[in-house]
Every structure is written in structure tokens, then in C-alpha cells.
Amino acid sequence: MLRPPSKAGLALLAALVAIAARGAQDKPGAPAPQAAAQEAKPADNKPASYVGSETCQTCHEDIFKAFQKNPHSLVETDKKYGHTTQACEACHGPGSKHADSMNAADIRQPAKLTAAAADRICLSCHLSQPTHVGRINSSHAKNQVSCVSCHAIHKNGPDGLVARKPADINRQCATCHSDIWASFLRPYRHKLPEGAMSCVDCHNPHGSALPHGMQTVDANEPGCFKCHGDKRGPFSYEHAPVRMEGCTACHQPHGSANPRMLTRAQVGFLCLECHANLAQPALSANGTMGTVPPSFHDMRLPRFQNCTICHQKVHGSYVDRNFLK
Amino acid sequence: MRFLLALLLIVPALAQTTPPTASPTTAPQDQPPASAGQATSAPASAAEAQTAAPAPAQTSAGNPAPAAAEDFHGSIDFGYRWLSDVHGSMDEYRSVVDLAQGPRLFGLEFTLADPSIHLFDQLDVRAYGWGGDPYKTAHIGARKKRVYDFSFDYNDFAYFNAVPSFANPGAPGGFDEQSFDVHRRTLSAGLDLFPGGHFIPYLDFDHNAGSGSGVETWVQDSNNEYAVPTLLSDSTENYRGGVRIEYSRFHLTLEQGGTTYKDNDQATDATLLGGDNTMPIFGQTLSLSGLQQAYGIRGHSIYSKVLFTSHLAPWFDVYGQFLYSEPKTDIHFSEVANGNFLDISQLLFYSSLTTMGTGTDNQPHTTGNIGFELRPLRRLRVIESLMTDRYHDAAAPDIAVTGTAPGLLFASLNGPNGFTEYVNYNQQQIDVLYDLTNRITLHGGWRYVWGDAQTLTGELSETGPPATGQLRRNTGIGGLTYHALDKLTINLDFEGASSDDIYFRTSLNDYKKGRARARYQVAKALSLQASFQVLNNQNPAPGINYSFQSRDNALSIFWTPDSAKRISLMGEYDRSTLYSNINYLTLPFLSPAVSQYRDNAHTATTAINLALPRIKDGKLTLGGSMFVSSGSAPSRYYEPLARVSLPVCKHVSWNAEWQYYGFGQSFYLYDGFRTNSFITGVRVTQ
Asked: pTM for this one?
């Protein structure tokens, strides 16, 4: 059961409620100041029209020039995207009002929009890409982490748009997931701090069919098998948790104080916590597929304390039901 | 890979002949200020990456700045690493750190962007850790606008693991059981072609191979086990190709792929081994005098992938995917063991054991996922998704075991033939998101997962019946996101679940999961971030009584006064606790007991960057990380570092770094180690 909240917890909760109440004083449906300005009807009631990127260049020369090297410059010339010669306005919206008034409030600024509204601008083109097939399950999308939280739209260079080097990717993810990054500072870990791997080797930040945005390999296998191909099988004798609960049934993939990133310090406990059901004629609900202890080894003897010394093919065996070979 | 290394070194040299560009690189304004320790390009070492502060998120897309018009830029870091004597367990050091001394190419990276080159518009090359480090990586990317996009990655990771606490501490042969020393090499190459506007064919190839040596055990029933040297060798090749069809309102990806797999592990030993059990049985000592064991596993698979997204209306998007794979395995296994063995059920000693195994496994695996996002009102979104994953494994092994006593063929066993295991998993989830104001978004939802499974289990015998299980769980979801004053962001999430059926005693049953995150930009140069999360899982069923709770509190600070020109500070502290109690039956008498696991950990990392006075571009970095835990596996792991960088001339700087590695475990004193690493090298930048 959850412990009752402490005084500090109550104080934090009260503060959050107070802040939320203050925010809620904005009438539902009322836009934020910037958004309100953007959504305000023009004084002459005429909708803004497209003026073309060359008009934008008049004032934003530096941005215009840099943009020629940006991957998004394709929008300027490729008919596929429907904004030929209007790349700037593809994201910022029709710019005639802004061009006339030179007022920032008269042009759409995606960074000032809500996450969902900003994402809709990006997805107007990028939804038509395989990357976003898993978006429906993405916790980023559901938690208002917008595209521009990770992608710098105007940035150029090898890391333009988004970090590409493993160390940079990890740094960017750790900005929000600092608790996860702390796990990687444990002694037994995947080698992310060394820069040998990155978060996106295992997770798809855009979402995936699998939980936690896990990458897939060979169509629908968990991404773990991309490197650990020898654990994939199919085996004649599968170890059920590998397929039913995944690697995290026994391993802490980010990092652990236990050898081989196990969830327990001693192998014997890890095994017997599942293999400890009372013998009974019919398996009941609430988790009884682990069976009774599979033998009567005297676990007081050192040679029996680490089950995987003998049951070494614990991920699955081709030839032995007890995973001995 | 010598060719690759040569290529990596030659290409930048050739690239130097390209016409130099005039203007120096201007840092993009929308790039967040470099945090303490943030690597400017290649991490000079593992330590640099380790202490690198998380970069503030790219919070602004509307704050653009021009990039420099350079066609070529890059850097190369090379030098020498010294390692002091490793005090303590060298095996443990190699299992955790495994850095050795010698000359190193710490990092090489360059980008050549020039549309006038016929073959490519842009070429990116990166390589880290070459020359003997355990983690070597290389990447080549090339693209030509509207023609192709090519990427190539190669990794060579060395894995060494010989943890004494993981072996039988009483083994007469030492602590090397279940150790291994292998290299795993992965290669990926992908080519996307852009022949037209809407059809994008692509081809990919992946290769993944592990090879090396290890020590496994040869087990003779439960009477004895013998540590035997093993050669490990496996490889997987993956070929796939497909086409992406991209239109403004919908996208469809069709992909067909295939894999091949082989596993050639083998163990050969001709020495007389006494095994872990040195107790004479009926006056005889068990032994293994010779072993020849060989796996000849061959696998192949086809798989298909269909992905689609559709923007049917301004208020309606649909997503879906269908994934199918069918890996198959052909098994060839042979083993001949000689020695003095015991069949305790017949009280019979025998001298030879032969095992021959053949068989096939077939594993059709189908996954489907479909969902939609509906926006009936401007502030309201409804996201619904449905997923099914159906995995079957039809195995037909035929295992023959033959024992030979002097003049007597005493046993011949065949394994069970033709059985099926399956796991069917289904999930539906609906989420409703409502923008209460432009600053507050509320979300709530419901997830229902259900499934069934059948698998082989032991049931105190090798031929017990399959066990079946079911999964049924309802989960309620809620939370809010609050953006206040453009400086404060708060995110709250909660999940509460109740399960009718679960598969395993330790599975998520009745659980509550909460998470709170806040980020506060105190000033332009100072930001704070805090997070808290808790998971509480309970299974009060008799005989199980599982109680699990984990908490994690993290606090981060980023201080970059004056755009970090003189000093910057990054600090992170994380406090995590884990509490787990579960009943189990301890052997040999199946007596009830409680398995308790506790982990109370403090983790901290920091990096302070100081600009050296009177030395332009001179920099001193101090920091590192520490991990201290108590509970079931009390551990300490320290990695402090100091690094200095001094400019030599315009494009050259000299770097020196010291890092200490210290590891200790209270319950396994022989597992500890400590050592110092010194690096000196040069970084050349263009």
C-alpha cells in the first residue's frame, strides 16, 4: 500500500493546486497572450495570404540564407509538400499581415503554441512517414512533449534538426529523464556513458507498438535481439518470461549494482521468487506459472546457490528442457 | 576492419583538399548554451561523455539563426592512455571498465557539405574508441538531395565478464565458471532512394556476430558439474527491402525481409576434471576425462511489415501496422563425454555418455496495431489504440541420450516430440486529452490488457504437462501538464491498475504508479529540474504476498552565467529506494521463507567547467560521478575526473585527463578494484 503522504508531500500538492488554480483562472478556451495575439482577427478582417519566402528574405536575410542548407529547404522546391516557394510559411502560416505590419504578433510562432498545436504543424507533412506510425502509443505525444522539444527546426550542420551523435542524444534525453540517467551511473550497465550506445538504439522516441517505445527488429521482435541475437531463438525449450514479460523480468537494462544487470543480488533469489509455488492440481490466478521449485537441491551448498551455473541456457535451450545445455 | 580504419583516416585527409571556406563557424543562436562538460564534438573519452551535462531541451523552434557556410568541418582526437596498476580484482575491473593503455584514436568526426560534389551533397563520418578500447564505433552517412540517403554503422564491442560472485565460490577450479571474453560486432547499412516524389524504395542489411571464448559447465544430472572451456560463435544476417509511399494525406510502407542465423558454440576438453562436487559417492570420485560438444544451429526467417498513417480529415488521423515474422531453427547437437558418471536412480556408475539432438522449431509471430486520433473540438483529443501480439512456438526436438557402462548400453531417452507454446497478448487503450487552458492540459484514459499463454514447465519432472495462464488487467490513467509563465513546466502522471489474472508471481498485479516532473527557469543562466516517481505493486495472494515499492527522486541544476564564458556548473543528484518482499519456498525442504531485496542508492554527477585565466580557449573541467548504495548489494562506484585543455595553435589543442575508477561491494570484498587512468592527446579541429 502507498504510504500516507508526508507533510512535505502535502505542501507540494497544495502548491501545485494553487499554481494550477491560478492557471485555471484563464477562462477555458481563452488563448494565452501570444496565442491570442496570433489568433486575433486582423483589423481589416481579411485573412492573411501567402507572400512567398523571398518576401521573408527581405527582413530575415540571415535566416533565409542559412535555411538553404537546412533539410527543410526541400519544402521550398519540392511540389510534394504543396508549399513551393513558401517554405517559411509552410510552418509559420500566411505572412502577408506580418509583412505589412512587421509585428511578431501577426505571424504564427510554433514555439509559442501548445504542444499539440505545434505538433499538428509538423505532422501536416511528417505524419506521412513511417517514423510516426507508433505515435498513437507514444508517451511523448500524450505528455505534451512536442516535436520542437527535441528538434531544432532551423539548425544546420551534421546535428541539424536533432542530435545524431550518441553522446549528444544521451545528453538530450537525460535532460528530462535524469532519473534514468542515474541508473546508467551504476557499475553494471549498458555503455551509454561511454558513448558507445545511445538511448535511441533501444527506444523509439516517436513511439512503438511495444511498451516504453521499445525499438523492434525483424518486424516485431524486441529491439534487444538486434545485439543479443543468440538469445532470440526460437528454442525448442523457451524460458517463458523471456517471451511473456521480456528481458526486464530479470534484468535492469539501464544499470544495476548486481552483476549482469540482474534485478537481484543473488541468482538463487531471482529464480526462486518465481519458482516457488505450492504444488497444486490446478494453477490458480495471480501468477502461478512459475511452478514449484524444480528440484530438491540443497541450496545451503555453495554449488547450488547460483542456479545459472548449471541451468546456463536460461534464455532458452535447443536440447534440454532444464536449460542445462 | 583495417581497411575501414584506413578509410576513416584517409578520407578526412583528402577532404582537406577541398576549397576552404572563408567564414568561421557561427554558433547557432538557437543552440542551448553548452552545459558543463558538454562535449563540443567527439567525446574525448568515456569520462567526457559520462560527466556531460544533459543539454537543455530545444525549447524554441522560432529562434533561428544562420549557420556558417563552411563546407568542411570536423575534428580528430588522438593520444595515449596510461593505466596505473589495478588494485583488487583484475577480472572485476575488466568486467566493469575494461579500458587498457596504449595509443588511441579517441574520436574522429567530420562533415563535408558541398553540393558541387557529384557523388554527395553531404558526407558525415564519425569514429570513436579505435586503437584498443573496448567500444569501437564508426559511422558514415552520405546523402544527395533527391537522389539517395546512405548510412553505414559498424560497432565492435568487447565484453568480458568474470565476476567471482557469479560463480560457485567453492569450485576447486577457481572462480571462472560462467565467464566469457567475447567480441560482438554489428554492421548496418541502409540506402534510401528518391527516384520520384512519392515512392521511396529502400534496402537495408544488418550483420551481428559474436565470437570469443568462455567457461561454461558440463552438467551430469545434479551429481556434478564441470567447468569446461567453450568457444562461442554466433551470427545473424538480416536483409530487408521495401518501399515507402508518401502522399500528403496518407503514407504506406511495405517491407519484406529475411534473416539467417547460425550458432556454432562448442566445448572440447581432454583434461581430467574433478568437478564442483568433490565428495566421493559410494567410494568413487566422479570425474570428466573428455568432452566433445558441438552445437550446429541454423536458423532462417522471413518477415513482412506493413505500416500506414492517414490524415483523413483535419480532425481525424489513423495509424496502423501489421508485422509478421516466422523464424525457424534447425537443430543439430552432438555431445560425447567420457569419465566416471553416476545414474543415481539405478545406482549405476558408467563411463560414457552420448547425446544426439536434432529437431526443428517454427515460431510464427504476428503483431497488429491500429488506432486513431480524433479531434472533435479544438481543445479535445481522443486517442484510441488496439494492439494484438500473437506468438506461437511449435517445437519438435528429438533428443537421444545414451549411456555406456562397461559392456552395457543402459539408457536411451527421447525427448518429447511435437508440442506448442504460445503467448497471446492484447491491449486496448483510450486516452482523452483536454486543453483546459492554453497552459493546462488534462489527460485521462483506460487501458485493458488481456491474453493467454501456454508453456512447458518443470513440475518436478522433465515430462510434466504444459502450464497455461491468463492475463487480465484494467488500468486507469490520469495526469496533467502545466506550462506557467514560460518558465515553469509541471507534468503529473498517474496509473492505477487492478488485475484479475497475471502470469507470474512477480508480475505487475494491483499497482499504482505516479510521476511528477517540474522544470523551473529561475533566471536566464540558472535552471532547476526535479522529478519524483513511485511504483507500488501488491499481490496479496496466499503463498505469494508480494509487496514491491520503488521511489526515485532526482534534482538537477544547470548554471551557465554569462553564456558559460567563464564558468558553468551542472549537478545532478538522484536518490532511489527499492523495497521488495515476497514469500517463496526454500530448498531442500520447501520451507516457506521471505525473499527480501532492498536497494537504497545515492547517485550524483557533476561537472564544473572553468575558463583558464589569461589563456584563451584554455579550459579546466572538474567533476565525475559517484554511486553509493546500501541494502542487499551495498556498493560504491566512484569515477571522479579532471581534464585540462590548452590551445597550442589556431586549430590544435592539447588535452590531458585524469580519471579514477574505484569499485567495492561490502558483501563481496574480493570483487573490488581501483585504478587511475591518465590520458594525454591532441585535438585538431577544422
From this structure: 0.86
